[in-house]
Amino acid sequence: MSDDFLTKTGLHIDDLNKIRLLEPDLSNAAEQLKQECNNFSEKMSSFKDFIESVVDTLEQLSRLVDSERLRAMASRSALTFLGSQKQAENQQMQILIQEKTIELQRLQTELAALVSVEQQQREHLEKLNAPI
């Protein structure tokens, strides 16, 4: 009967015979909920730490990728410059070859003319040295 009176007034007696404002079932559920909330908070904290480490790793990877990209661009630029420089040198060599070929043809023509002149002069000397 005293339990009914206490219940009507909003008071309850727990298993340890202590007076409580909440029903024992509600008190147990609240304690369990509190424990689950603490567990959830710990898991969220752990998840936050994990995400921060993933973000840090991705940022490091991003910096590495940017560094390699810049290095690749510099290498490509240097290679393009060397290619154009080799092409310019090749063109200069082709021009020099053409100039030397023209000079060779001129010298061959001059040699042929001089050989002809020499031949004519020998013939002329033979005529002059020949007995009359």
From TrEMBL:
Major site of localization recorded for this protein: other
Gene Ontology cellular component terms for the protein in this record: centrosome; ciliary basal body; ciliary base; cytoplasm; intraciliary transport particle; non-motile cilium
Q: Where in the cell is it found?
A: Cell projection, Cilium
Coiled-coil positions are 90-117
Instruction: Note the superkingdom of the native organism.
Output: Eukaryota
Question: Biological process GO annotation list?
Answer: cilium assembly; protein localization to cilium
Q: Which protein is depicted?
A: Intraflagellar transport protein 20 homolog
Lineage, uppermost ranks: Eukaryota, Metazoa, Ecdysozoa, Nematoda, Chromadorea
User: Which keywords accompany this UniProt record?
Assistant: Cell projection, Coiled coil
Annotated source species: Steinernema carpocapsae (Entomopathogenic nematode)
